[in-house]
Amino acid sequence: MNPTDIIRAIQENIARVIKGKPHVIEMSLVALLARGHLLLEDVPGVGKTTLAHSLARSLDCSFKRIQFTSDLLPSDIVGVSIFNRQKQAFEFMPGPIFANIVLADEINRTTPKTQSSLLEAMSEAQISFDNKTYPLNQPFMVIATQNPAEYHGTFPLPESQLDRFLMRLRIGYPSPEEEKRVLDRPQSLHPAEELQPLLTAHDVLLLQEQVDHVLMEESITDYLLAIVQSTRQSDLLSLGVSTRGALALSRAAKGLSLVRGRTYCLPDDIKELAPIVLSHRIMVARAQGLRQRSFEQAERIIQDLVDSIPVPV
Amino acid sequence: MPFDQALRFASIWLASTSFIGLTLGAGLPAWLAVLTGAALIVALLGNRGGKVVERLATVTPISTSGWNLLVIVGFLGFWVDVLWVSGELLPAGVHFLMVLMIIKLFNLKLRRDYLHLYAISLVAILASGSLTTDLWYLPIFLLYLLAGVWTLLLFQLTKHQEETRMFPMSVTRRPQLPASVGHVTSQLVWLANGLALATFGLTLVIFFTIPRVSAGFYQKGFGDNIRTSGFSETVNLGAIGPIKRDPSVVMRVELPDSSRNEASRFYLRGVAFDQYDGKSWTNRLNYRRSVSEDATGTYVLRGNRSHAPPLLGETVRQTILLEPLDTPVLFAAPFIERISGKFPGVQSDLTGSAYLPFPSSSRIEYSVVSRSNPVLPSDFDSEPSLYPESFTRHFLQIPIQSERIAVLAREITHIHRTTYEKANAVQTYLTHNYRYSLDAPLAEQDQPLEEFLFIRKTGYCEHYATAMVMMLRTIGIPARLVTGFLATEWNEYGNYYLVRQQDAHAWVEMHLPNSGWIKMDPTPPSIESAGSGSSTWHALGRMMDTIRLQWSRFFVQYSAADQLAVVRELKAGSTSARNKALDSMSAFFSPFMAMLGGITEYASQGTIQPLVQVLGPVLIGLAVFLWLGIKRPWFKRMVCKKTPRDEQLIVQLYGRMIRHLARKGISKPAATPPFEFVRLTRERWRDAGSAVGLITELYCRTRFGQISPTREELSLAEDHLRYLMALDKP
């Protein structure tokens, strides 16, 4: 099977669980293929966890879920050393982070210390514990969720750490028809449990490698850089997009090209991805209103910027 | 043939003609000529199928930067050539030009490359034009002109083609394009060739009327002059012999006033010699004085001569076209009275010979009026008389060893009384008792004259003439040896004598008290020098030579003065001008007409056989190649190939589509990427959606994916665009 068919099969597989959200499914696959991590930001109960769960199920990968609470400790994520009486030595017990897909539920509810232990693992793809380095499983993808509606008892992630996520997605409420179909489904079983795995972890690695071979024509790279540059020069923003952000956009565009069955990037890819890849990496200037973690506002600013930049022809 | 293919073909044709011109004119080194020829052939084959070239390009792994490197290497080679190999700028430049042409021929992709090739070809043809004044340049130049017109037309047409792609005509006239557009039609063939012809006609008019600055800059150098012998101040006996087999043309002599007499032999006098030392002749009267020019530009030689007899003989007017020789002697029938021509000056010596100040390095044309000395009645019965010492010192000088000759001379002449009879007796004796042969090895002998007269009794003109001069002198008749040419080859097409090296001749002039110097020739008419005029090949050769003469006369030698005359007459607007123009036209074209007649005659004689024998196999080979080729898959692949232009084509198609949509009110904002624009269009103009989608997809795949569209996809895209153009927006 060629990559396009595989990817389409996975999309259809997940779509059987997440009704009416093909875009979100597509983007989560892009994040997976681009070796990125996903931040889902939405109100509770719209299927964030289900999305992560069904993605993991479709891939025949190990899946762990960590419910972040205010009293969660780094060792609850990374693992602990336990004294083994037989061997008379400390033994490392790997934590839930040693899985292919990790769901970090309500990541903003835990303390920055715990958050940072996760984020380190995300960027380094390894864990250092007791002067020892433990490589994480490959593929490794963190799907974090956070609830923007609640402020009490939360520890918002700083921009520098948000930068580690490839993209930030919103799921949104399903349409009434889709919602009705969700309700009509038998409730006895978690919907994601029905799914059959379509890919092995090794297949995912192969697909990730293919992303590297997607062609990005020079004029498109220039276009991308023009967008990144505009965020740095905009008056509306107090912090522009970093080089890591530009790299992320490039990788995401390549991933999207592969998901859409192309071997080359289009300006469309860049334009489509720019809001969701860049909006969590910027800081909206105070003059533009309260410094709130307003998803909509940042996205709109990015969208406006992109709409002002000429596309290569 | 589609335009782009025709353009390529015409461009290579253009390059080929200029290359041939340069090869013939400059004498390229063999390896460079072969290399360029091979490049041209490869490029020409590439015209039929890009695959061959592509395959070659893959075999020779040279990238664009590699080619650029080659150009730089070539340029360095050019300097090496200038400084050490050729040592001169012009040949080195020509070599470098050829290298550039080869490189360009392998890189004929963009329109820019074509322009470069044209520039190189132009420089090449200009260079070859300034390197030569020969006749072969004319057909080459005509071919070049024809190719030039074709390439210009096709270049413009393909440009036009591209522009119409970008700026389409009104929609109502669309969807169907005439099938002939983009192909070479018969009308175009007529137009192009007619245009070339008209250009040539116009060029002729301009050539004859517009003032010119100068003639060729790079005329033949001195080293290229024809080497003559027998006209220097000292000539060894037997010097003329070796050149008697050289057929190269020395001059052409026209006799405007007299029509040709079949049996006539025309003497062209060069130099006279007075002193003989037993082995070689020397001219001691070689003091040259400049001849003054009169108001009409004519140099008058005679009349100033010390021993001038009354002018009684008949005059002969000649127009002589002299090839560049290594001697400054001006040849003409004896004896020169007046010379006119474009000379820096004319000198004459005391024997009545005329010279240029220095040998001419280019072909010169001059007119001469000569007057021969008839034998006056009073001399028929005059006996040998006494001459002043200053005269006898020169013309009665005898080398010491000539006793046997004197005895022989007296033996022959003692029964005759008068000078004239004695001289005739000597001449008759020599003519009848000696055999003419060029094989006589007399030059190495110690006493060549005795060897000739008494032992071998075979020799050629110099021996005859020397023997006669010596015999006349021993019996007291002043005589001298004259060298020159004896013209026998009459060209009936151009009405002139063709004089070759092998016509070099030596004869005798003897002095009669009243008549002056009289020409005598003891040499019997040789079989070898008699032109075998009956042969068809010789006739063809004479025709070719006629054309060569006309070429030289009307084009190479055409000067500002001639131009001035034409302009004056044009100004006068008289009918005479028109008549003269017509005359000169007919004079120019009559040899062609004669040649045409000759060819038809030649064909009717059935002697066309050898031509058929040569052409037949070539034609058959060509036919076999084509027949085999059509059957083969590689040939088909050659015919329907993919050009790199396909990519440009789809980009142009997309551009046309965008402009068309803009006219329909759906303009593409700068910040809208292609597929977003497709959605936008689809929302506003549903019917156009599929066409726009398809073209956009192909465009993006080519533009951003760098995947070339296939021919089918291209034609599909073109169909969709046509459909879109024909569509009415609601």
Write a brief structural summary.
Chain A has 313 residues and is α/β, with parallel strands linked by helices. Chain A has helices at residues 3-15, 22-33, 48-59, 74-78, 112-124, 159-162, 176-184, 201-212, 218-233, 243-259, 267-278, 295-307, and strands spanning 38-41, 63-67, 79-84, 89-94, 101-105, 126-129, 132-135, 141-146, 167-169, 237-239, 283-284.
Key features of this structure:
A: alpha/beta, Rossmann fold, Helicase, Ruva Protein, domain 3, 2 domains, two-stranded antiparallel sheet, 12 helices, globular, B: 730 residues, alpha+beta, seven-stranded antiparallel sheet, 20 strands
Q: What this model shows, in words?
A:
The complex is a heterodimer of chains A (313) and B (730). Chain A has two domains: 1-208, P-loop containing nucleotide triphosphate hydrolases (Rossmann fold), CATH 3.40.50; 213-313, Helicase, Ruva Protein, domain 3. In chain A, the strands form four sheets. Chain A has a five-stranded parallel beta sheet with strand order 2-5-8-1-9. In chain A, strands 3-4 form a two-stranded antiparallel ribbon. Chain A is built from twelve helices and eleven strands. Chain A is 44% helix and 15% strand. Chain B is an alpha+beta fold. Chain B has four domains: 3-209, no CATH class; 234-520, C8orf32 fold, CATH 3.10.620; 536-607; 645-726, no CATH class. In chain B, 52% of the residues lie in helices and 13% in strands. Chain B has a seven-stranded antiparallel beta sheet with strand order 7-10-13-8-2-18-17. In chain B, helix 2 runs parallel beside helix 5 (89-106), helix 6 (111-131) runs antiparallel to helix 7 and helix 22 (689-703) packs antiparallel against helix 23 (711-726). The longest helix of chain B has 30 residues, at 137-166. Chain B is elongated and about 130 Å long. Chains A and B meet through helix 11 of A and helix 21 and helix 22 of B.
